[in-house]
Write a structure and sequence with these properties.
Blueprint lengths: L9 H29 L1 H26 L4 H49 L6 H23 L3 H23 L4 H7 L6 H39 L5 H11 L5 H18 L1 H27 L7 H41 L5
Helix pairs in contact: 2-3, 2-5, 2-7, 3-5, 3-8, 3-9, 4-11, 6-7, 7-8, 7-10, 7-11, 8-9, 9-10
Length: about 350
């Protein structure tokens, strides 16, 4: 019996099959991102609540081990969220308000000095301001423009914060039911795998939040002490800026370090600016070679290139908020892939 020859050779059919799979995955991911953008009013509090629950989950579990009733333990944890976040926000805002004018004046002076030394067309202070505004609009997106749109945004932010706090309470109180609820949504044969993937993803987010907070605190303290020793104006505000921007890996450290160097250059001269640059680089070296390996040794390891791509994608999708959420979501995805590799990749040579 004569067989009909295949239209395509075996390698071409395999490439076509993989292309079809990649197109299907990309289509599903695009629809998912589109739905998240459309329903961002509901999605944002959920994501923030997951991050908050991941950060203070150990406190809630400690209270439960102390035989505290579940609702009371969740309530106390939410109060701790309000205390920690409110206190940190007050310290940061107070420091920036107290030294904000001084920092802004120093930055303007530094921009003027740089423009004068460059002396080329297109490097005036006005041009620098326009370019900075264009860059902010490009990477800030709707989030940055929404912040200055009016009072309605303030109400939306408050509503999002309140809803996130309520969701944190329910997530912590009913965390023991999460596995059962997840199993009820998937086929019976995949319950163990889906539960393991969910646990691995949450552990990755939990490790990222705790580790980033610790690294941010250490960076802010070390750089703040160095700025105080060098008598750089606005040292407390700059240290607060370092702490806040540390939640955007790599890019945040670059931005806060650049601001500190420019402020030192404007008020204390080139020598002090070089000392500040040395302190910032030394802190980054300590972070990259000591803190990050210690912090990430028990969590998911992410390559810097993957982190930068995630931040860029998050900024293009949701502006500043996307930049903040991109890395923990990438950590969760990396944890899921690691669990799948552990379960189904054991026999792979």
């Amino acid at each position: 019996m004569q067989t009909t020859p295949a239209l395509l050779p075996e390698p071409a059919r395999r490439v076509a099959a993989w292309c079809a799979v990649l197109l299907l995955v990309a289509g599903v991911a695009a629809v998912f991102v589109w739905l998240c953008v459309v329903f961002k009013t509901a999605v944002t509090p959920v994501l923030l609540a997951i991050l908050g629950a991941a950060l203070l989950g150990p406190l809630n579990r400690r209270l439960l081990r102390m035989k505290v009733q579940k609702s009371l333990a969740a309530g106390l944890t939410v109060v701790a969220v309000l205390t920690v976040v409110g206190g940190a926000t007050y310290i940061v805002v107070a420091a920036l308000i107290e030294t904000g004018d001084q920092i802004v004046a120093s930055l303007r002076q530094a921009a003027t000095d740089i423009a004068r030394h460059l002396g080329a067309a297109g490097t005036s202070l006005d041009d620098l301001a326009k370019n900075a505004r264009t860059l902010l609009e490009k990477f800030g997106g709707t989030a940055a423009s929404g912040v200055i749109s009016g009072i309605s945004v303030v109400g939306e932010v408050l509503a999002t914060a309140v809803l996130a706090l309520l969701l944190i309470f329910f997530l912590l109180r009913d965390s023991d039911r999460a596995a059962g609820a997840l199993r009820s949504l998937v086929p019976a044969g995949t319950g163990d795998t889906v539960e393991a993937m969910a646990r691995r993803a949450f552990e990755a987010v939990e490790g990222f939040m705790r580790g980033t907070t610790l690294v941010a605190l250490v960076d802010a303290v070390l750089i703040g002490v160095g700025l105080l020793v060098l008598d750089v104006p606005g040292a407390v505000g700059l240290a607060a800026l370092v702490f806040v921007t540390a939640y955007i890996p790599y890019l945040g450290a670059f931005l806060s370090g650049a601001v500190a160097v420019l402020v030192a250059l404007a008020d204390r001269g080139v020598v002090i600016a070089l000392w500040v640059l040395g302190i910032v680089l030394a802190v980054q070296v300590i972070e990259g070679n000591v803190l990050q390996p210690m912090v990430q040794s028990r969590t998911v390891q992410m390559h810097p290139a993957a982190v930068m791509l995630a931040i860029t994608a998050g900024a293009s999708v949701a502006g500043v908020l996307g930049m903040l959420l991109a890395v923990p979501l990438t950590a969760a995805a990396t944890g899921v892939l690691g669990e799948l590799r552990t379960r189904y990749g054991a026999d792979t040579p």
